Amino acid sequence: MAQILDGNRVRDEIKAELKPRVERLAAHGRPPGLAVVLVGHDPASEIYVRNKIKTCQDLGIYSEKLTPSDSISTEELLAAVEQLNARHDIDGILVQLPLPAQVDSKRILLAVAPGKDVDGFHPCNMGNLVAGLPGPRACTPAGIVELLQRYRIPISGRRAVVVGRSNIVGKPAALLLLHEHATVTICHSKTPDLAAVCREADILVAALGRPAMITGEYLKPGATVIDVGTTRVEDPVLARRILAGAPERLAAFEKKGHIVVGDVHPVEGPAVAGAYTPVPGGVGPLTIAMLMANTVAAAERRAGVC
Ligand code: NAP
Fold it and tell me: Which of 52, 105, 189 for a ligand 1 pocket mutation test, highest count of atoms within 8 Å of Cβ?
């Protein structure tokens, strides 16, 4: 039986460790402050933001939600970000993506002060990551490494394959694994014979956004498999095909009419892997935990208490 890498458990550990740091900052003057900018009414974004604000409340982190209308211009949003940059009580700024088409997302992300960029998306912080310098790391990749380390899964000297090269997941995940001394291969949609490359991996990170594409034939027996993908599947034909060997999950789909599926096949993945992150309950919970960790670290740096 493959070991389940429980993201909820690790999230709770991280939160328990952050709480005294938040209390220390509060005693020192004020708690950390996080501003979340949510433009428009994208349903998935609304859920993510609600969870982030709720986690801030659990930890005693001050949070503020800005909800400009989806007709906002780039200039107006830049002005809002500049105001947050100047605020003493705000340590972290998160602009929830995606932004509406008329807004220049790159200019907005560039405008966030690098010291308050708790998403780790600013080019300065991406550069810090490449160079191995301190700075906030992208939350999902940082959560992956945290999970591996807390489960004492060796990274140094292992072969790691990352499928996906996005700036928010694939590239930073590959760099973080490299800094932990893995030998890293990055794959993408033009990689020939993807399954053969994946089968070389002791640690496979699947971040494609293709539900259940990573089947058993992509995995080395006993590998550690980190499934970042989260795709909402509503098509009954696809759901029944993917969940054919998972009767409980199929029953849940038949009841609700939708289900969230990872990039790793939910039946074949656990059958071949040595350890794996489930979807849901694997990588997802860690993303918010690492956002909180970045916010607390930013507040400590600004307060001079670290
Ligand atoms: P993205 O920007 O769409 O990038 C997907 C990457 O996968 C691209 O590099 C793409 O290659 C590659 N890819 C797509 N199809 C492929 C194929 N058939 N074979 C090989 N490579 C393929 O996605 P993302 O933002 O990185 O997110 C990836 C997944 O993770 C999504 O399901 C997303 O919802 C999920 N996610 C989850 C969390 C979490 O907290 N759990 C956080 C972030 C993202 P090209 O570059 O060649 O196009």
Answer: 189
Provide the H-helix boundaries in the chain: 7-28, 43-59, 74-86, 105-111, 123-131, 139-150, 170-179, 194-198, 236-242, 247-256, 268-272, 284-303
Contact present, 198 and 187 (Cβ < 8 Å): yes
pTM of the predicted protein model: 0.97
Residue identified by tokens 């498999």 is 225
How many Cβ atoms are within 10 Å of 44's Cβ, its own excluded?
Answer: 11
Decide: 103 and 112 in contact? Cβ < 8 Å.
no
Q: Beta strand pairing status for 259-261 and 231-233?
A: antiparallel
Which H/E stretch holds residue 261? strand 259-261
Known catalytic membership, residue 263? no
State how beta strands 203-206 and 224-227 pair. parallel
Question: Is 6 part of the annotated catalytic residue set?
Answer: no
Six token digits for residue 203: 């640690």
Question: 256-299 pLDDT, tens per residue?
Answer: 999 999 999 999 999 999 999 999 999 999 999 999 999 999 99
Residues lining ligand 1, CB < 6 A?
140, 163-166, 168-170, 187-191, 194, 207-210, 228-231, 283-284, 287
Q: Which of 55, 94, 188 to mutate to test the pocket of ligand 1 (most atoms within 8 A of CB)?
A: 188
